[in-house]
Design goal:
mainly alpha, two-stranded antiparallel ribbon, 6 helices, 5 strands
């Protein structure tokens, strides 16, 4: 014959049952919470991937569009002139004081190019390639993405400043989509900042001596 539980036994059974339910509820809660956290973290991880892809695309576009040729100073290496990667995209070296550009004789020659590939003299005067690194004082550190896009679209600094001079191929780079320009700007934000104050351009009248 089964023993009829006493009041004390019944109380213990109830307590154990409630305790088991509490533990089970806690475990289920923890499982649901971890599942929700993982689900919330997934979009963040997914959104981080396009950023890396955007930077990689920007680097690719810069590497295939001739940007290195002018905006990174060149130096003489073992095999001849080569870009100085320690000054990647830092523009014309501020310590390099250029003498007046030589006067070309009458004829079809129009342009004089400095040995660093960062100073160019022509009918527009003398232009010096800009510092594209994210340095806050001398580079693009304070620029916004919009500033960068408007510069390419308008051919003026930040879309409202002075004209961007040759040999910067604004008409060619204007064919970049906004997506391309955003990728280029994103990549430029990742390169090492170089403090290098590029001189202001020289007007044609001042350069013609």
């Amino acid at each position: 014959m089964n023993r009829i539980p006493t009041t004390t036994h019944r109380d213990r059974i109830v307590r154990y049952t409630l305790l088991g339910s509490t533990v089970l509820t806690a475990l289920l809660g923890a499982f649901v919470s971890s599942t929700v956290d993982a689900a919330e973290a997934a979009p963040a991880a997914k959104s981080a991937r396009p950023a890396a892809e955007q930077v990689a695309r920007g680097k690719y576009l810069m590497s295939t569009s001739g940007c290195m040729d002018c905006h990174t100073p060149w130096k003489m290496g073992e095999k001849g002139p080569e870009p100085d990667l320690s000054r990647l995209y830092s523009g014309h070296p501020e310590q390099l004081q250029m003498p007046p550009a030589p006067q070309l004789p009458e004829g079809p020659w129009l342009v004089v190019w400095g040995a660093t590939n960062t100073a160019i003299a022509g009918p527009w005067g003398v232009s010096f390639t800009a510092n594209l690194t994210p340095d806050m004082e001398t580079g693009l550190g304070r620029w916004t993405e919009r500033d960068f896009i408007q510069t390419i679209r308008s051919g003026r600094h930040k879309g409202r400043g002075r004209e961007v001079l040759p040999p910067m191929p604004i008409m060619v780079y204007n064919n970049f989509s906004d997506r391309d320009l955003k990728a280029i700007f994103a990549y430029l934000r990742t390169i090492p900042p170089v403090r290098n104050q590029v001189p202001e351009p020289v007007a044609p009248t001042a350069s013609a001596r």
